[in-house]
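Fold it.
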Amino acid sequence: MTSPLDYSLSDRILDAFTPGARVTLVADPDGLVDDERVLGQLRQRGCGVLTYDPNSSDLMALRYQYESEFRLAREDADTAEAPGDSGVERALVILVNGDAEALQRLPWDLLSAARSGGQQLRFGLADLFPNLHTGAVTMLARADLDALYHEQSAMGMDFGPQMLGKDASTDFILGRVFGLDMQRAPSESDALVALLRLHETRRGMSALPGDFANRVAVLWQGMQSHALLAEWPLERLLTSAEATYAFLQERWPAFVRSHIKEVNGLALFGEAQGVLFAYPGPSVLPFDHAQVRPYIDTLFLDGRLRPIDVAPSDDAPAGALRQLFTDALLNVGIRVDAVAGRLKRLARLLETLSKDIPGADARHTEWIAFALRWAEAMSSWHDQAVTASDRHSPNLTQQFMTLQQRIDEAFGQWMLAGYAGLHNLSPLTPAMVHHIPRALARQLRANPQHRCALVVIDGLALDQWRILREVLLQQRALLSIQDGALFAWAPTVTPVSRQALFAGQPPALFPDRINTSGGDEKAWGRFWAEQGLRPDQVGYVGALRSDDDLPRLNRLARDPSVRALGVVFDTVDEIMHGTPLGMAGMRSQVRLWAERGILARALDLLLENDFDVVLTADHGNIEAQGIGLFTDNAVTELRDKRVRVYPSAALRSRARERFPDAIRLAWPQIGLPPDYFALLAPGRKAFAPVGQTFVTHGGVALEEMVVPYVFIGRHAKGLPG
């Protein structure tokens, strides 16, 4: 018998679906069904899932998907390779992002099918959390609702005879879901631990909602009779991981300096007197508190805090450095020998990553959080290879290669199990690149004065974004950069993923354009026309490469009528396909391009003209080795080093005979047109001359699939961020 505590929110929702119903229409105003685990379970039951947002989706697109994927039985034997597709009509679930009345705006035949042999369902927060204030619950992310439902179940589904008010509901959620004690005044170390735990457990997820952060700040600072937390910018720190890490980074030198005073003959490089902090608060933080230390250690290993340089003076006594390095925390947070320090941190980071690889049942946010950390390891590895390849130890090389293989295997399994549900998730918190335009459209609808710019750097991997980020902050110290990531489309090629990005649609909805590139501007214009913008309110600038191209951007950025602007930099992709020196050469060229300043000057134009800037990429890249060439070019729709596309499963099957290792990499047609059959190169291999090394893309490795999703602004005159 299932324990009430094991009965999850997902179980509660899934139990409402009637087995055997041919068509189920679901009113899902709060996005409760629009969850990857619920959708995954529905697919395992043989259900196809379509989503429809009456505020932004095209009813014709819904009709096309319904007709092409579900109404007509697929009898062509070619489709037998697609998981869950048996060649006959599947059960269908249509999620409508609206209340029950929104269901009535669906086509008559769908309504009729649901009434005859089907069902209509509705799931709302007020129904599932009857004792909590809906206004408080509404602010939570979907994963937080799972935790809240568990806590609600633990209390016997009953908080008393009356519903809790908003403040009481907020306090309950803060304590039970976020682990923040609202009943006790925290010490500085308590507050620091709470902040670090909050942000570390929410990597890949949204931050603490603003109303919740305000409640914490008011209560904590109000309870603190001796005013220890009065100076802390608590509300900002609770809502932004980036602000928290900047707050810590500013104060780290003071902590190191207090230890150096105890060791004669050591000094900080570039030590400045009278430093003014950008973030208010105490100059000294309890970094060495027993509960704080593990978090700080991890932040340095992951690259979110940066070590500072320490140097011995000419008269430093022997053993001074050894004395300093006996403190494990200082060991990761200071730098004496830059190369040796990087090697040591890299070895420890690889060790921690090897313990944290997500499993096949992980949420996509877990893989995003892991990918951000893996990008730091990749950066450290390749930077070390560039600057001191002769210093690599054989053990470290083996450690890196073994971990990379384990990641490839685990992520490959997850892609086959978890990727299929991502494209149907709500765009409120984008999980894939084609969700970004719909998230931007919501912002424009909410604020008629809002202007947004989508900057796409073609082919930019997460570890290469770290190079651009570093250079940008050197060139523009006042930039505010909020890092994140999301998924590209598979196969990770421009005609698929970049067109989906600008179209705001899965590739299945543009089958006539999927084998070509260059349709981004028209797709971008069509998307915004559907959102109600006039042509003069939409702009697009492609192939930005040098300062000679900036006048095109300047003209549109200064045009007050333009509200939605798409911008594409394609230099990184050109570097990728032109470099003969592997990943080390690729990263070196990306840095040189960034240092030329074209990206910084483009961002200046956008920010000066009040655009909110989102930066992303259509796909990433990996270093791959050739395993041989194909000779069937006449029958393929797309020929790339990591992927080949065929118009039928029969042609793909014949091609697979040439490379037996690619048999399991006949990619399923997830979100792709029915005549799009992709064959992926195995592992980190390429369909290219044997033994040659290339930086390329097209497959489903973690570095190809998870790309930057970054918000860029400028610090205010007061508090940064």
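The first strand starts at residue 23 and ends at 27.
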